[in-house]
What we know:
By secondary structure, the chain is mainly beta. The chain has one helix spanning 178-198, and strands at residues 17-21, 26-30, 39-45, 50-57, 61-66, 72-77, 79-80, 86-87, 90-94, 99-102, 112-117, 122-127, 141-148, 169-171.
Amino acid sequence: MTAADPHPFSAVEEPALAVRDERGGLLAVAGRRGYRVPVPVAVYDTSDLSCRVLVHSRFPVHAMAFHPALPLLAVGTGRYDGGYFFEGELLLLHLETSEARSLIEHEIGRQVLELEWVDEHALRILMAPPDDWQDKQARVEGHVAVVHRDNWASVLARSLTGRDLAGPRLPAPRPDGREAARQMLVEVTEAWRVQSADHPADL
Length: 203
């Protein structure tokens, strides 16, 4: 990344979602939504806007959350398959190795809509229903589960079962995060340019 680079986030093309990790000085950005896949997911260092990690998701990204203590990023993805199922993945991205593990055991998975780390051991997951068969509210409601693990860094791929993901039904809005993502990238870029102008020798 240099001060002359007009597109510091070009790896993600059009941003669809952006999340900051204030503790670690990182910024996660997911690329455009829709049926254009694979979807880029990049993690940047906000001190110099360098891309630390770049992976790709098979589905559009709806949620991301940095672990409060470990170098991990949870990524929730998914879409309606066009006829029956809400498919998707819960990815756990290891920021030091760039390894992305798909955690849901079922082959179709679940469309993950929201993610929140309750603490170091518990992840709150909001998911669309598995399908919309005789379910008129499937597009506006979902299921929430809180999954506990002693050490999320060692969680194995395909290790979250249906029992782990079982939870009560509640309203589940599908917000569009594109405008907020674009604004966050503008703010981060401007802050970097100001810092670069004040401390040119650090570049």
